[in-house]
């Protein structure tokens, strides 16, 4: 039932067309605390109509309203505060959650529309560091939210597998590398060569010329350079996929920059045909004055392409292949201006999906306040952080529950989940300074706290035994349960809002709110007492378990049944 609609009708019944149904509905507010009611209507908008103070209007209206379907309705200052009937409300919400299960909160607003998501996108021949975590887990969670809202996401790992850096790497490998070392430990050795190149070229700038010549050979299809490039790409993907598997992240396509290397001519030709390409100091640019943006550089003076040239080709390919409802780029906030230019160029080209191109920016992740950089050698490997998190989780589980039968599996779910949740609980545009121990705490605003709350609910249900909740009366009038019940009611709205805002933190914060409300209820109420409300209380516990598990799932985090 739409309780806002019920309250709207109650208010309209005591008005004489002074406000429309839509106006009343829009003005309804959620009070700051449950002690002030469940929904509130501010009477300020009626002051001019009735020529009275809002406080007096609220008092008059509350005396006229039929309160039989509410616990009570009271006037507080200029507000009419509605307290919903706890028994009927809880019965309806708990039935809905238990009947729908994991599908609770599902909607079809996306109508099956395709949504390519450009995400993760590491450079081959470089390790996946903590710097890649954000794009990967934010993109993965947004994909899950899109599914929940009726869209069809297409997760595209747009690999950085082309460009002059491969000229540098090939030069470095030939000078300082050997095949045996790369076969033993591919990524660590390749990155060692890359870092060495950047140290050496400070003293020997001619190395940069050699690297450019080597990349030109790669572009021209020279056999040796192509062989090395393919080898570096293969061993990189093998390494990446082990980490993605640990994170529980999969992709629908790995079309990297190299895939679009032979597809750039079409975009350049469209720009020429539309008269959009103009010369500027020998280079080719698209002027974007009408968007208050600087000209977009499309081709260098020597005819060389740039990132934007490939991204135009990518956008054309995705537009043609997927007919996207939206086109999402989960890329750091430092690229915001670039994506404004890219969107403006695509709009000028008349690309059908350009209007619905969205850059999903996020803040930096730092460790001890320092930005991560492969070039400088300041790398913190994501794989090592995940292993450390799993190890720390296992120690805590052994201390708390030494007899847990599947400790290794649960430690992985808790450790990896803690890293993912620790990122996603932050609004994505905020910067994060990473501290491993803080993420792994079983109390506070952490993933393990939410997981532990779910496991606690499952433990209660196991102790209760086999009780049929399907047809049970779920009218729960315990005031201590009310905060939990109303939090359960909010879940579908949070699912819609998080998807609309591309903001997984809304789900993470919601899961913390529900877990806190449930733990407070558990601390103050005896659940497994044989009385006429036992089934209703167990229904609440079951509903909490379902919604916490689904909330974590939308973040890409597992929910163990025992910890």
Automatic annotation (TrEMBL):
Q: Where is the DALR anticodon binding domain?
A: 450-563
The keyword Ligase belongs to this UniProt entry's keyword annotation: yes
**Keywords assigned by UniProt, alphabetized:** Aminoacyl-tRNA synthetase, ATP-binding, Cytoplasm, Ligase, Nucleotide-binding, Protein biosynthesis
Which parts of the sequence belong to the Arginyl tRNA synthetase N-terminal domain? 5-84
Q: Which GO terms describe its cellular component?
A: cytoplasm
Annotated catalysed reactions: tRNA(Arg) + L-arginine + ATP = L-arginyl-tRNA(Arg) + AMP + diphosphate
Q: What's the protein name?
A: Arginine--tRNA ligase
Which gene name does the record give? argS
